[in-house]
Amino acid sequence: MSSSSSTKEANVITCKAMVAWEAGKELVMEEVQVSPPQPHEIRVKVVCTSLCRTDITAWESQAIFPRIFGHEASGIVESVGEGVTEFVEGDHVLTVFIGECKTCKHCASGKSNMCQVLGLERRGVMHSDERTRFSVKGKPVYHYCAVSSFSEYTVVHSGCAVKVSPRAPLEKICLLSCGVAAGLGAAWNVADISKGSTVVIFGLGTVGLAVAQGAKLRGASQIIGVETNPEKYERAKAFGVTEFLNPKDYKEPVQQVIKHISGGGTDYSFECIGDTGMVATALQSCCDGWGLTVTLGVPKMKPEIAAHYSAFLSGRTLKGSLFGGWKPKSDLPSLVEKYMNEEIQVDEFITHNLAFEDINKAFSLMREGKCLRCVIHMPK
Fold it and tell me: What digits encode the pLDDT tens for the residues 211-265?
């Protein structure tokens, strides 16, 4: 059981967390000490968290250990630090891996969600004092993506949490704190898909299928899914994919096949795999003049992108998408409302519900391509 006293905001909490001690090694359940929230921070009791492909990529390759992974999560505010006025104990929240300060150049621009104050945190420490809030037997344990939700309690900057309606089921909407929202936003905010347009999506995982859903809701006439795992095809139809291509089934390059079936190339292409080599293929799959390629995946290796200059001289555009362009505090509450009003699908992405102690099973399922989202339910 987790423990804390009545003066929660002044005390360390001891609770369970799944700690990664080494790259690629199974997570270990440990008793961790979670420090109280410092100024402008909140401590959150995690209710549900989901495993995202980005967690696995970092777990396999990053050098900062020991670490508590997890960033796609929902929870309830347990205590607040000095200066926090937006949240009170008991508020329902989504955690987010990029924040929104609402005052920096990017937040004020209306053109970007790349907050200059609360952008991507890669060092494993808190934004405010570059220290960690976790420890095991006095040894520091580092954060991941400003969230670290594979713990019964976590501390986040108040700018990296979004208050949501208490009516929204936390065990479902946790998916909107990353993957599903990222795909929908790439389709709506970054690409701004138009009615009747043609779309190709490389990779039919959660993000790719969320892009498909966004394209379908915008009225795209053709949504081509490119995927090497045929087991994903049937499920993808429910999200709007109209045609499927397995590159292994063709002798010619898949971009040529796409150009043939789309009448010269699609209006939009989305790279959702995390393979920089596929970015050039995606570029070549969209049409001359106005073809737009959006890349969403986080690569495991070879981060540099190579493309022939003629792809751009002919009028194609390449854009990156981080969290689908959503400003988390400004935009996520309305996305939750869309879910509550049954305007978007979220439940359908949940293929497994697992207990906290079974989190390593979620890692195995995702690495083997046997799940979309595994929702991990924390102890009550």
Answer: 999 999 999 999 999 999 988 898 999 999 999 999 999 999 999 999 999 999 9
| 39 in a structural domain | yes
Count of other CB atoms within 10 angstroms of residue 312: 12
> How many domains, in total, are found in the chain?
2
Beta strands in the chain (DSSP E): 13-19, 28-34, 41-50, 72-80, 92-95, 134-136, 139-141, 153-157, 161-163, 198-202, 222-226, 243-245, 268-271, 292-295, 317-320, 350-355, 373-377
- 101/69 same-domain check: yes
Task: Residue 161: name the closest of 261, 276, 37, 300 by CA.
Answer: 37
CATH number at residue 246: 3.40.50.720
* Same domain (yes/no): 155, 25: yes
Instruction: Check whether residue 19 and residue 110 sit in a common domain.
Output: yes
Query: Over the stretch 42-84, which tens digit does the pLDDT of each residue have?
Result: 999 999 999 999 999 999 987 789 999 999 999 999 999 999 9
Instruction: In whole angstroms, give the CA distance from residue 375 to residue 320.
Output: 27
Q: In the chain, what is the straight-line distance between the N-terminal and C-terminal CA atoms, in Å?
A: 9
User: Which residues span the domain enclosing 220?
Assistant: 183-321
Q: Mean pLDDT, the chain, as a whole number? A: 93
Q: What is the pLDDT of residues 257-278, one digit of tens each?
A: 999 999 999 999 999 998 888 9
How far is Cα 261 from Cα 36, in angstroms, rounded to an integer? 57
pTM over 0.85? The answer is: yes
